[in-house]
């Protein structure tokens, strides 16, 4: 089982990392394969069973589908600029908000959802 060695320290195998990321399948497949298991993996499994090692918590990042990416691109590149110009021509005091509401009614989304598509607020880690 290949291991990564960094600074003289042995790191987890790919199966162990997959388990920590919430996917136990590679580790289960290794156990059922009948292949010899090295001491580091035995220690890892013992720690898991004792509750010393748990899977990482928190939701997995949601990757938008290609269809959703295309819809958002259409909103950003076509609908929003068109509606924004219309709102300015109509003399709206808050052209951005008026454009978001108009795009929302066209695309069946809320104005807040349109605002987040136009001005995404990314969380910095």
Description:
This protein is 58% helix and 3% strand. It folds into 2 domains: 5-49, no CATH class; 66-118. Strand 1 (5-6) and strand 2 (9-10) form a beta hairpin. It contains 6 helices and 2 strands. It is mostly helical and 125 residues long. Strands 1-2 form a two-stranded antiparallel ribbon. Helix 4 (66-89) crosses helix 5 and helix 5 crosses helix 6.
Give a brief rundown of this model.
This protein has helices spanning 14-20, 25-33, 39-49, 66-89, 95-107, 111-118, and strands at 5-6, 9-10. 58% of the residues lie in helices and 3% in strands. The protein starts with a strand and ends in a 7-residue tail after the last helix.
Topology:
Blueprint (H helix, E strand, L loop, with lengths): L4 E2 L2 E2 L3 H7 L4 H9 L5 H11 L16 H24 L5 H13 L3 H8 L7
Antiparallel strand pairs: 1-2
Helix pairs in contact: 1-2, 4-5, 5-6
Helix and strand sequence: EEHHHHHH
Estimated helix fraction: 55-70%
For the termini, the CA-CA separation is 32 Å
What is the averaged pLDDT score?
Answer: 82
Classify the beta-strand content into a percent band. under 5%
- Low-confidence spans: none
Shape: rod-shaped
